[in-house]
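Weekly structure sync - notes
Attendees: PM, LS, DV (DV joined late)
Agenda: review two folding runs queued last week.

Item 1: First target. Sequence and C-alpha cells pasted below for the record.
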Amino acid sequence: MEVKFAFTESAQDSLTWEDIETLESGNIGKARSVLARFVVDDNEKPVPFDDAMSTLGKLKISEIQGVLENFAKLMSEQAVNPPNAAS
C-alpha cells in the first residue's frame, strides 16, 4: 500500500518538539498520529486525520519501515529546502 506525504508550510509549522521526540523514540503507535497529519491523496490534498489514521493502521508490518523511511526522507528534504525558500 502506498502512502503519500506532503509538508505544507502550515503542516511543518504544526510540528512540535514533542512530535520530533515521538518520531525519534521509535514508538510506532505514537508516530502514527504524527504521520497522519501529513498524509495526502493522489491529488496532493490532505487526507482527513481519521482516514489517514485508518490507512496507516492497515499497513502490513512489511510496509511500515518503508513508509517511515519515506516520511523521514521527505521531512529531511523539506528541512533543507523549505517550500517557500528563496531561490
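Item 2: Second target, run right after the first with the same settings.
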Amino acid sequence: MVRSVVRAMAWKRDQGRIVLDAETIGGQITLEHLIAIESDQDLPPDLRAGVRGVLSWVPGYSLAGRRGGSDEYVGFMRTHILRAMRDFQAGIA
C-alpha cells in the first residue's frame, strides 16, 4: 500500500511539485489525498494505477461512487482506510 503511494510522491518530488519527507508521506496517506493522487492526470498511468489499487482495497470503493460526491460514501471509505492503516501500522510496530 505505502509503496504505491510513495512511488507517486517520488514522481511528484522529481517534478518539483512537493518536498518529500516523513511528514509529507504521513500527511499524504489520507483518503482525500489518495483520491487526489489517483485523479492527478499529470501522474503517469502506471503510478495512478498503483494508487487506484490501494483504493480498491477499501470496501465499497469504486470510481463511479467516488465521483458521485456523496459525503456518506466518503465517510464510509475513510473509516475503512483508517482501519487498514491502523492495522498496517500495528503490523510494523
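Discussion on item 2: The radius of gyration is 13 Å.
Action: LS to circulate a short write-up before next sync.
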